[in-house]
Design brief:
The chain has two domains: about 90 residues, SH3 Domains (SH3 type barrels); about 70 residues, no CATH class. Helices cover about 40% and strands about 20% of the residues. The protein is built from six helices and seven strands. The strands form two sheets. It has a five-stranded antiparallel β-sheet with strand order 6-5-4-1-7, with no helix packed on it.
């Protein structure tokens, strides 16, 4: 009787261990697609910051609740990150600040060239198209002026907070 009981217990322990090993082996990796992002102790923008992660940094996704992922860094820090700050694939490694910002603002991936095109105004192909389509020079110049604006990280963060956008939405 005891042998049978311990045999069942051993099988249950073995199955639980196997389930744990499989879950560890299939942990999903996500990558930071924002220039930097904050890991928080809870699923709200008001929760204390436990760490700051950088563009292209790999994170182990532990679970998802609504628009928040609980993740673990390679250093072992666990926290919550707003899902929109991550990507399932490693973002392209553009070295320009504008390219990184452009990549973080897009839902999909952007190449560094695509994301930084705005820094130079219309590229040659777009400018040629605008000429052929009859778009007046004053409109093309307006686009160039708009794309020349720069915003600091603090200004973007303040805008998101004030507008209750992204991770600051309620």
């Amino acid at each position: 009787m005891h042998v049978r009981r311990y045999g069942r217990l051993a099988v249950l322990v073995w199955l639980a261990s196997l389930g744990w090993l499989v879950s560890v082996g299939y942990a999903e990796t996500v990558y930071v697609q924002a220039k930097s992002a904050q890991l928080r102790s809870g699923k709200t923008s008001l929760s204390p910051v436990v760490a700051t992660v950088q563009f292209r940094e790999a994170l182990e996704k532990l679970r998802q609740e609504d628009d928040w992922y609980q993740v673990r860094t390679t250093a072992g820090v666990t926290g919550w990150i707003f899902a929109n700050k991550t990507s399932p694939s490693r973002p392209s490694g553009g070295d320009g600040t504008l390219a990184k910002l452009g990549q973080s603002m897009r839902q999909g991936e952007a190449t560094p060239v695509t994301a930084s095109t705005g820094a130079r105004g219309l590229d040659k192909v777009s400018d040629e198209y605008a000429r052929r389509a009859g778009i007046p020079q004053r409109y093309r110049a307006a686009v160039d002026r708009m794309t020349a604006y720069t915003l600091s990280d603090r200004e973007v963060e303040a805008f998101l907070q004030e507008g209750r956008l992204g991770e600051y939405a309620r």
